[in-house]
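As a warm-up, study this chain.
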Amino acid sequence: MGTLLNMFKNNMRQYSMIIALVFITVLFQILTDGILLKPLNVTNLILQNSYILVLAIGMVLVIITGHIDLSVGSVAAFIGALAGIMMVDMNMPFYLAIVVSLVLGALVGAWQGFWVAYVKIPSFIVTLAGMLLFRGLTMIVLDGKSIAPFPKAFQKISSGFLPDFTVGSLNFLTIIIGIVMSLVYIGIEVYNRRLQKRYGFELSSGKGLIAKLVVIVAVINLFMYVLASYKGIPNILIILFALVVIYSFVMNRSIMGRHIYALGGNEKAASLSGVKTKKVTFWVFVNMGVMAALSGLIFAARLNAATPKAGTNFELDAIAASFIGGASASGGIGTVIGAIIGGLVMGVMNNGMSLIGLGIDWQQGIKGLVLLAAVGFDIYNKNKSS
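Now compare it with the structure written out below.
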């Protein structure tokens, strides 16, 4: 029990957000008379929040380095507009248009990263200028009009599902994937525990490990069962899962990830330790540009149109997701999983408040209070630890 309490204290912010997500989900499940967790609505939750979750993955890296990016919504709109021109007006194959769009997103990120990393202009100013610049360019290239429709194959990025076969009323492949994921997760946890034992690290109790495995496996299979009760696994969920795995590995197991945390923790100390801080900052913004481009493509595919108003307030939702998920406003702290949890908190709140008929004015106010409480909680923990 003592080990479990220490683990909770050391990861209080992340675990508290998981508890908050569970509480908010149960609350709205009751208030909506069970509609929130119906298979159709759970699938809609994933589709509606996918582009924000993609942005949150990139944004949390920016925030960990101690910077901010206010331009991501405008960049997403700009890239979506260019994708519309390439696919609809120029009849470019959708896969080639996607590659070109991601490259253009990287160039946008490089443009902003140069000013932040090498010219030393504060990221707030650079990305605020970028927000205005790329919103203006979006309106110029679209001439104030929407471009539609996109090719069917492109639309499937946001609206398609993994091919499946039905047994009764369930998509059976989805159930099988849930079981396989559970077995893989158990194998990873057992392997990590053996490594910790081999190198003499402090181990959690066997009962605690079993309890953790039971809870996680139950959540995975229940989630897959809900998806299998509708149309199975959405294509966008596969993309999100791949991004979470890749970025979690980079941040936790790679040199680049350690350099990003070191830069955010103390830039001068990191520089003296041999970290090329300018280069790290530059590439973090390049990555953010790619993620903004991907988000713009996902949103355009879901909307089936490139519009001048696309991406409005995306940056605020991504920043809020990162902070709610445990990122520190002063940098050096944050996780990819935490950003996803923060995004889900925001998504469940948006969906739940809409289902109970709460007006957009109340929704905005409540989300603002939740963000303020999350950052206040972070500052409280820092003051307490110091």
